[in-house]
Design brief:
Strand order of the largest sheet: 1-11-10-9-12-13
Distance between the termini: 79 Å
Structural class: alpha/beta
Strand content: 15-25%
Shape: globular
Largest sheet: 6 strands, parallel
Helix content: 40-55%
Radius of gyration: 25 Å
Number of strands: 14
Length: 428
């Protein structure tokens, strides 16, 4: 990782730039063709695409009860216990996010309410591939069930033998997922967006994925289905002072870098001594990683930046708007109070990002690519709609009538005015 020492303010934007995600016309064209095939041919297209892309011939798309039961025998009891503990923590934190209905009388006789209503049917996309993300099942299915979603549909790519990773199946069963399908990639997103004979159409799609999945969500999110948030490669920024431990910081940077070659890890520190120590420690720990090749590629777009003050460190963090922000300083809470843009913040020397990724209870589905300036991570509200209600008494209508009719007249909307005046006429 290259170290930049006290860069001039006009260099900050380039130093905080994400890895360039060039518009790949080929990927977009392929995704559009996949979407059209699924829209036109439904389940037949899904089976054909499974054979073409995943190299597997499927007799049926749905995972059977027998396959789910078999997954139970393939997992070590220690892993099951870990997943249960994580599930309990995620459930506890998200259950606490429930909000009571709101009722306010804005003026005598005018009562306004708001209530939360769960989205009826949600679709979860869970990546398979080299690292089946069963932890993401927890992060999406648990709040969906707590919110009260009636149906939770899960799509995940099949393995070469036509099976689904047992960790995903077992976790999905634990979390109350309604149905599981062996469908991956852009075709899974299209199937949930449009619905097929076997796979029901959902109201909103959640979950991470590769560039094909992300492109499909972006395209279909414009017209066919709601999606959780814009998505891009995963990222971390670590803020550290001279109290930070170089091995801790290096491990945090590498835990992000091993996600994928387009991930990004940044260290912003007020200590040049720490910067040098972290650079060496990253090299040492990197050699011990099973995914060292992936992490090495991610580190080419990762940086260590030494700044003059804590104030500059905070300003840089707010400019970057990190998906994950780790604050390893003497007083992390004081810094966190000044952070406006971040997906999730990890405070102190003993709060690694990986704990939030798996089991602390917070959600790991977070805004990337600077979207933390405007988007929240997935939470209980992500699975709900807010419906407002109002009820006026006759007296309330009389009291507010002049306000409404004056505004409607000014906007030239006669029918709006008349909807009030005809009622006033009856009351008189």
């Amino acid at each position: 990782m290259k170290i930049y020492t006290e860069p001039a303010r006009d260099q900050w934007d380039s130093l905080l730039s994400r890895p360039l995600q060039q518009e790949n016309a080929t990927i977009r064209e392929r995704v559009e063709r996949i979407i059209d095939r699924v829209r036109t041919d439904g389940d037949r297209a899904l089976r054909e695409l499974a054979e073409e892309i995943d190299g597997v011939r499927l007799d049926q798309l749905a995972v059977t009860d027998a396959e789910i039961a078999a997954a139970d025998t393939r997992l070590a009891e220690s892993l099951k216990a870990a997943i249960r503990q994580a599930q309990e923590n995620v459930a506890a934190f998200h259950a606490a996010q429930k909000m009571e209905p709101i009722r306010v009388e804005t003026m005598p006789g005018v009562a306004c309410q708001q209530r939360s209503v769960p989205i009826h049917r949600v679709g979860l996309y869970i990546p398979g591939g080299s690292a089946p993300l069963f932890s993401t099942v927890l992060m999406l299915a648990v709040p969906a069930r707590i919110a009260g979603c009636k149906e939770v549909i899960l799509c995940t790519p099949p393995q070469r033998d036509g099976s689904v990773a047992p960790e995903i199946l077992w976790t999905a069963q634990l979390c109350g997922v309604t149905r599981i399908y062996k469908v991956g990639g852009a075709q899974a997103v299209a199937a949930m967006a449009f619905g097929t004979t076997e796979i029901p159409r959902v109201n909103k799609i959640f979950g991470p994925g590769n560039r094909y999945v992300t492109t499909a969500k972006q395209l279909l999110g414009l017209s066919a289905v709601a999606i959780d948030m814009p998505a891009g490669p995963s990222e971390v920024m670590v803020l550290a002072d001279d109290t930070a431990r170089a091995p801790f910081v290096a491990a945090d940077l590498l835990s992000q870098a091993e996600h994928g070659p387009d991930s990004q890890a940044l260290l912003v520190t007020t200590s040049a001594t720490l910067a040098a120590a972290v650079e060496s420690e990253v090299e040492r720990q990197l050699r011990q990683l099973g995914r060292a090749e992936i992490a090495t590629r991610a580190l080419t777009e990762s940086r260590i930046i030494v700044v003059r003050s804590t104030a500059e460190m905070i300003e840089m963090a707010n400019l970057y708007a990190a998906e994950h922000l780790i604050v390893e300083t003497a007083d992390p809470e004081a810094i966190a109070e000044q952070i406006e843009n971040a997906g999730s913040i990890f405070l102190g020397h003993y709060s690694p990002e990986s704990v939030g990724d798996y089991a602390s209870g917070t959600n790991h589905t977070l805004p990337t690519s600077g979207w933390a300036t405007a988007y929240s991570g997935v939470n209980l509200d992500s699975f709900c709609k807010k419906i407002t209600l109002q009820r006026l008494s006759a007296e309330g209508l009389k009291a507010i009538a002049q306000t409404v009719t004056s505004m409607a007249t000014a906007e030239g909307l006669d029918a709006h005015r008349n909807a009030v005046t005809v009622r006033l006429g009856e009351l008189q």
